[in-house]
Amino acid sequence: MTEYYVRVIHDGTSIIEEFWAVQEDVAHQGILPSSLGTHHADSGKDIMTTLRKRGFPPEQFHKLLLGPGAYFPRMARPTSTWPECSPGRNPDQSDTTRNNRTTSTGQLHALIQELQQICRVVHPIEHNFHAYGHEIRNIIAIACTEVEAQWKNILVANDQKAGNRGDYVKLSLPMKLQEYSVELPWYPWLKPIAPFKNWVLPTKRGEKQPSAVV
Which residue among 160, 190, 205 closes a domain? Predict the structure, then answer.
């Protein structure tokens, strides 16, 4: 059985990423074996122990749940470990997926336009953060509804239960929601917003779900 890893190397100034395929007694860089990048396990040792002995720190290897060409429906696959990079893309190019993505993008642009219109009336500085009104209430409600719809559709597409926040929070780890923040380039004085920074699964029975900041 072949398992797949990403080896992430930090050299102090840059990050190098390598794709590795690992079997019980052999490992090689890339999908296919090569004469330069193939390692065979030492006698009586497993391959990971052998790699560690040969100078490959185990903490550099990150096991992938999916192999080449596989993907989770409606979830973008990361293409880089650089935090400033986009989350990547999903390879599904079916008509249904393209239509759903286009509809969601249209909704996003509509929300941005609504937010910009509000900010023309209520200047977005900290002193005005407590301002409230019907338009502000409406955009909050629509944004929350849209986020919940996206989560629900992702869970359903992956054959998972999607009934409430207790189900949605399970997406926090695989989608790296805690690592995302939003900047508003039109208002550079505002700090980045990380609405799901503390959104994690409960660790104890009966522990309350943490609330996301919207």
Answer: 160
